[in-house]
Design a protein that fits this description.
This protein folds into 2 domains: 16-128 and 273-310, Rossmann fold (3-Layer(aba) Sandwich); 136-271 and 313-335, Rossmann fold. It has helices at residues 45-61, 74-86, 103-111, 136-150, 166-184, 202-213, 226-238, 254-262, 273-288, 321-325, 332-335, and strands spanning 16-20, 27-28, 31-32, 34-39, 64-69, 91-94, 115-119, 130-134, 154-160, 188-195, 220-223, 246-248, 268-270, 298-300, 304-310, 313-315. The radius of gyration is 20 Å and the shape is globular. Helix 6 (202-213) runs parallel beside helix 7 (226-238). It is 39% helix and 22% strand. The strands form 4 sheets. An 8-stranded mixed β-sheet has the order 1-5-4-6-7-8-15-14, with helices on both faces. The chain is built from 11 helices and 16 strands. Strand 9, helix 5 (166-184) and strand 10 (188-195) form a beta-alpha-beta unit. The protein has 338 residues and is an alpha/beta fold.
């Protein structure tokens, strides 16, 4: 059973490369710093923002960046990374499509002396230079905390992210750390739980439809991002339940913020993406210049990787103005459409 996909951005399934030859102000001993930027997709609003902020910072600093979009294909991403190796980049900033699918090509880069930053999503089982991301376990725990504060009993539906994305497991760890005592005491029952391959909306929609058709009264839903939350709300809407069920998501997409002030989504988690992109850029330049990563935190991907971890904020209707609007992440008039 489908749902309205009108909001979904359809991207032509052809790999698109952006080549930014921006000034030559910053130099190493052997020439100009050159950064490769490998994104798994630009379908979702936030990934477009990450890329834009990263390139804006590069433009300001006069750094050359070669950026690729793999269009949600591991094979394409591997091919594009090899092209970046051939372009003799100094540093690779990688948003992996498949956490387990890049080990070989990343090891090739390391063997060539290229520094590797895993951006927001962790690459598995290879000794990269740094992981720059948010507190992804906290993302999950904040979603659950917001819901149980309003709905500490009843039936919950859990919609996890893609199993290929390491963040999905971290989000799950976060919200289960909050929900488990309620589940163990039988205050909360998980009536359906799914994993959304490739972060597709259909599993989220179908999970809610199936729970309703099975006769459950749904009290709360966790969607591992705002697109999955939107799909769940679409399923609620056709059953006349949108606005009557608490729904959590994350990314603070403008559409999610609109749903929050309109009452169909309860909470999203705001991640300061500009700070993340600028932090990753500055670290890339430092690595290209031969400087080491300074971080007291590590995360294990098979190796202990330096972890640059940024904080996150739960956003509801009550603090919308003091968070995403105050930070100029979205304009007030874009959120409050009416």
């Amino acid at each position: 059973m489908g749902f309205d996909m009108g909001k979904k951005i359809i991207i032509v399934a052809v790999s698109i490369m952006w080549l930014f030859l921006i000034g030559c102000n910053q130099k190493k001993d052997d020439g100009v710093v050159k950064i490769g930027y490998s994104a798994d997709t630009l379908v979702i609003e936030r990934w477009q923002r990450d890329k834009a902020y990263f390139l804006e910072k590069a433009n300001e600093e006069g750094i050359e960046v070669i950026a690729y979009n793999a269009n949600e294909s591991n094979a394409t991403q591997v091919k594009q990374i090899r092209e970046l190796l051939d372009a003799n980049v100094d540093v690779l900033v990688i948003i992996p499509y498949d956490k387990d699918g890049l080990k070989e090509v990343v090891q090739e880069a390391i063997d060539k002396g290229i520094k590797i930053i895993s951006y927001d999503r962790l690459i598995s089982d290879v000794n990269i230079d740094a992981y720059v991301s948010f507190d992804n376990i906290k993302v999950g725990s904040l979603m659950a905390e917001a819901l149980v504060a309003k709905q500490p009993t009843g039936n919950y539906v859990l919609i996890n992210g893609s199993p290929e994305d390491n963040n999905s497991a971290m989000f799950h760890e976060g919200y289960m750390s909050v929900l488990k005592p309620y589940i163990d005491s039988e205050q909360i029952t998980i009536v359906n739980e799914v994993w959304a391959n490739d972060w597709r909306e259909e599993p989220a929609y179908n999970a809610v439809i199936d729970a309703i058709h099975d006769g459950y009264e749904i009290n709360a839903i966790i969607g591992a991002n705002d697109h999955l939350a939107d799909a769940a709300i679409s399923a609620l809407s056709i059953n006349g339940q949108a606005g009557n069920v608490l729904v959590a998501g994350h990314d603070a997409d403008v559409s999610a913020c609109q749903r929050i002030v309109e009452g169909t989504q309860y909470v999203t988690i705001y991640k300061p993406i500009k700070k993340l992109a600028e932090t990753a850029f500055e670290l890339a330049v430092q690595l290209a210049e031969g400087k080491s990563v300074e971080s007291e935190l590590t995360i294990n991907n098979g190796y202990d990787i330096p972890y640059i971890k940024l904080d996150v904020i739960a956003v509801t209707k009550e603090n919308m103005d003091e968070t995403v609007i105050l930070d100029k992440f979205h304009k007030r008039e874009d959120i409050y459409r009416d």
